[in-house]
Amino acid sequence: MADSDEESSNFIAELLSLYNYEVIHAPTAAEAAHLAASLQFDSLIVSLDMPNGGFTLSQSLREIDGYDDVPVLFSTSEVYDYALLMEAQFYGALFLHMKPFNECELLAQLSTMVRLKILRDEIKGRLSELDRLASTDPLTGLYNRRMFFRRMDEEVARAGRTAAPMCLIYVDIGYFKVINDDHGHAAGDAVLQQVARTMTRIIRRGDVLGRIGGEEFLILLPDTPGSAGQRIAERLRQRVEHATIIYGGHKIKVTISAGVFHAADPVGLSLDEMVKVADQALYEAKETGRNRVVYRGEEENNNS
Predict the structure, then answer these.
(1) pLDDT by residue (tens digit) across 75-94?
(2) How far apart are CA 104 and CA 173, in angstroms?
(3) Cα separation, 278 vs 276, whole angstroms
(4) What's the CA gap between 207 and 59, in Å, rounded?
(5) Fold of the domain spanning 145-296
(6) Catalytic, out of 78, 155, 215, 284
(7) pTM
(8) Domain ranges of the chain
(9) 215 counts as catalytic
């Protein structure tokens, strides 16, 4: 409750505490902003009688992270008209209440505000879960194809502005169809999950990893020179080669091939061009023996 009228605020706080509301009173706009930044409130009661103006305070509170949809009740000691009501709604008010407070009306309004906040939080949670489901591969938990390319588009645009290098690694699990045929699709799923976990452990915070389809993965390494991209791909290849996946009492040995594309300056490069070059490098790795890394870029080194 942001209100410079301490007597009225204390009375309301005592009243609401009887109905299990926890009320914190801020007598100044500065203190209200400080409390909102450090705590998370479910509803706000803001007085329009405050020296710096309740509308200004409400607007500043809305700019604090997490307060864009917190219900607000404005109070005023003046008889208000339609114009003030419309202005209050413009600044996000759910209700406008004239002092002295009508206790029953205030309790009903607060109950509505809290229920609304709970419903909004539930909707946010469900939308967040739906977004997660829509953006991730259900088997591995990695980004799916759509979300990977959206993130790649963002990173390429950022790299274009900063002229930062980046690497793209195209990964393919060797003879994956044979694994499915010999051990069953459930074993193939276990292999995909294990390889995904191995990649997740190797990449850094800020790298982008996705399952593109079947047994193919893409790894985007922002701010990464070609030599570092090769080392990461080679480390991943070795980790997968030396790991043993046990499924249904059988030991399954897995290898991967990888194509690495390095862009020293991605300005002017399209996503399709980057993926095409990495895919060509991957194709060469598979055609020349598999279980190896092939590099394409300005600082081209020998194949691993």
Answers:
(1) 998 888 888 888 888 888 88
(2) 67
(3) 6
(4) 37
(5) Alpha-Beta Plaits (3.30.70)
(6) 215
(7) 0.64
(8) 6-134, 145-296
(9) yes
